[in-house]
Design goal:
The protein has 83 residues and is of the alpha+beta class. Helix content is 30%, strand content 30%. The model has no long low-confidence stretch (mean pLDDT 80).
């Protein structure tokens, strides 16, 4: 299987008030039970982004986040019949 770096991490303790305060400088978006924040990848070339929806949190490397964002935009346009 892939390297340990390929594994998706879960932050079970999020969201909680202490962690939100700790990560508040890195929060990119927070609306309707969706929070997106990042952490510096120590020794890496990119940030690690965390996406929290409800009580599930997933981490991903920055390049994967950009791919997911692009795919969400394409999907939303299709759902809204926007060309």
């Amino acid at each position: 299987m892939g390297d340990k770096e390929d594994n998706i991490e879960m932050k079970k303790e999020f969201p909680n008030d202490d962690l939100i305060r700790e990560e508040s400088n890195n929060v990119l978006a927070d609306e309707n039970d969706v929070v997106i924040w990042y952490d510096e990848n120590k020794g890496g070339d990119f940030k690690v982004l965390f996406v929290n929806v409800g009580n599930a949190t997933m981490s991903m490397p920055e390049p994967v986040f950009y791919t997911l964002t692009k795919l969400c935009q394409v999907s939303a346009k299709k759902l809204l019949n926007i060309e």
